[in-house]
Amino acid sequence: MRDFLIIGGGVIGMMTALQLADAGQQVTLVERGECGKEASWAGGGIVSPLYPWRYAPAISQLSRWSEGVYPSLALRLLEETGIDPEYRQKGLLYLNVDDADQALRWARQLGKPLERVGADFVRHKEPGVTMAGDSALWMPTLGSVRNPRLAKALKARLAAMPQVTLKEQCEVAGFIQTHGQVAGVATSQGPLTAERIIVCGGAWAAQLLATLTVELPVRPVKGQMIAYQAPPGLVQRVVLKDGRYIIPRADGLLLVGSTLEEKGFDKTTNAAALASLQRSAEAIVPALAECPVAHQWAGLRPGSPAGVPFIGALPEWPNVFINAGHYRNGLVLAPASTHLLVDQLLGREPLIDPAPYQPTPERLIQA
Fold first, then answer.
1. For the chain, which domains are there?
2. What does pTM read for this prediction?
3. Of 33, 27, 24, residue with least CA distance to 5
């Protein structure tokens, strides 16, 4: 019997496994497909909520801590695996912000560098960007990571750790119950037992926990994105306008996102979303009209009430834990939310107050 069994091989599941293994624990991670190929792969990789001043304190607490982890995590994984997660800290330009005063008050309160800048500043930083107004906001500390490569590096590191067993293409059908306790899970590769079980199933977490008669208010929310193949350097920084963003990669790939669609577990793409994303991107950087769209894809975010994740033990099943419901901020919150859960699992002093994230009966029955 292993100490811990993690269900779900996204960034949340893999970071949980990494921290437990670093602490000397024995871990089995099961993934129904391939690790890192669902929401962790499909997102954009911005290491901050899009408009951080608009979020609840529970989310802000996690995001502030996580933001500072990514530079060292990326360097660690590069050194250990040879795979570069491509962490880039070149800042973010916010265009057309209608609550700029609120944003600046938020930044002053937290000591975050955020300033109002004019058109000349924007042209100097990003000559290809077109502004609709005469002012913007600039956050120089914001970074981004190339999330598919982050997931690839995490998987490679876990595969090399003797304390970790990775089982891909291993779908969990339900929980094994003995004498009113959860002893393990039934999978497509046979039963697996563990002292403690951690559900990191993203948009699929509610389906799995329903087999324990736990009503988790987490649902799939589809997001479609596109990527242009542009000349390297056309855009150097993340640019955000009217809820849509452009994220540059070092090789010239420019990601544009994203839609918000309540379509269940449907991950198909469509021409309407493509056209909408192109209009948004080309309104920010007109030169993109001359660049080809190289890719279009969709992923499923784990939507939850107010976007506050569920982190902790289930009330009726004290050896079953959950870390899910991060909505649009799974990558953003992953280092802090996994650290907070591992603190609880190992009896350490928690990183922050865990109370707002606990899957209490009151939170579980919310619609």
1. 3-52+148-218+305-365 (3.50.50.60), 92-140 (no CATH), 219-303 (3.30.9.10)
2. 0.95
3. 27
